[in-house]
Specification:
Layout: E1 4-10, H1 11-14, E2 26-32, E3 35-36, E4 39-40, H2 42-52, H3 54-57, H4 60-65, H5 70-79, H6 94-109, E5 112-115, H7 117-124, E6 133-138, E7 144-154, H8 162-172, H9 175-187, H10 190-194, H11 198-207, E8 221-230, H12 232-235, H13 242-267, E9 278-286, H14 289-304
Parallel strand pairs: 2-9, 7-8, 8-9
Antiparallel strand pairs: 1-2, 3-4, 5-6, 6-7
């Protein structure tokens, strides 16, 4: 992944004197795109979207069939996009954000896209239910972690926007939602294609079986929360320098603090074994949300034919 990482650490290492608790299993990831000819590199960001769209818009079987057929892959991926949000809607760009999250999960965390969410939403007519991304990360040769992601594309990440994110995260961690996601993982053929170690694949399926308590796997659950957001600092910047880097670092750590405080207040004590779940807030600034959504929509229309 060719974006610059400004922060990638446990929250407690960034702000060791914090009064927030529990924060032992909370991390912050801040990344930025760069500039060329004093302009934010829109094309580079757009290429990242289209280079990673198949991870969430196609099943592993479909991706395998289309290896070496890049244009066909883009066409088939575009067909599964909904783009049903109304212009100006706060939720507009949600599929774009999901694709970015799948790309980050693949390139930064080495995650396996065991449930391509856009593909399943399209094919079972199940729009906007459950987590926005579902991944497995292999931990060595004989263990794994479960990643249930949230992806938002907002024109602001000030305090007023955060409760809606937290509500979505809380809903995705309800036992019935987790059991549903686990059922999809165990019933899809993607897991057998992506996890080459047969014994580990069987171990994963057994751990996620509906006959077992969700409580036993809470410590394996990670929640990556992507906040792709319009940013006035980025919009007014012309080059990647230390002034810009420091401004974004400070802003993102401030926003991470605000988010975790609100999340702890809302979910701690309401989500069973909350302190055992790992949360990763991922912040990515862009200069113009509307411009990116408009261009993405045009390209989707083109590939849909």
């Amino acid at each position: 992944m060719d974006f610059e990482i400004l922060v990638d650490d446990f929250y407690l290492k960034i702000l060791s004197d914090t009064a927030l608790a529990p924060v032992e299993k909370k991390r912050v990831l801040s990344m930025v795109n760069d500039f060329e000819d004093e302009i934010w590199r829109y094309e580079k960001f757009e290429n990242f979207i289209w280079d990673n769209i198949a991870l969430t818009a196609l099943s592993a079987h479909e991706r395998e069939k289309l290896i070496g057929q890049s244009r066909s892959t883009l066409r088939e991926s575009a067909k599964n996009l909904r783009l049903t949000d109304k212009v100006g809607d706060i939720g507009q760009g949600s599929e774009l954000a999901e694709i970015v999250l799948y790309g980050i999960m693949h390139h930064h965390y080495g995650a396996l896209p065991v449930v391509p969410k856009i593909f399943y939403k399209q094919n079972v007519q199940d729009n906007a239910k459950g987590a926005d991304s579902v991944h497995i990360v292999l931990e060595g040769d004989d263990d794994f972690s479960l990643w249930f992601g949230e992806a938002k594309f907002y024109n602001s990440i000030e305090d007023a926007r955060l409760p809606a994110v937290i509500e979505s995260v809380g809903n995705s961690l309800k036992t019935d939602k987790l059991k549903k996601e686990n059922s999809i993982i165990t019933n899809t053929s993607d897991i057998d294609k992506l996890v080459e170690n047969r014994e580990l694949a069987a171990k994963i399926k057994n751990a996620l079986s509906t006959k077992n308590s969700i409580d036993h796997i809470k410590a394996k659950i990670h929640v990556p929360i992507l906040l792709l957001h319009e940013c006035t600092i980025t919009a007014s910047t012309k080059e990647m320098d230390e002034t810009y880097r420091n401004a974004i670092r400070q802003y993102h750590v401030d926003r991470a603090t605000a988010y975790f405080k609100k999340q702890i207040d809302a979910l701690c004590g309401k989500v069973t074994k909350y302190s055992e779940v790992s949360f990763h807030i991922i912040l990515f600034p862009v200069p113009d949300r509307a411009k990116l959504i408009e261009q993405f929509s045009k390209e989707v229309a083109f590939y849909k034919g």
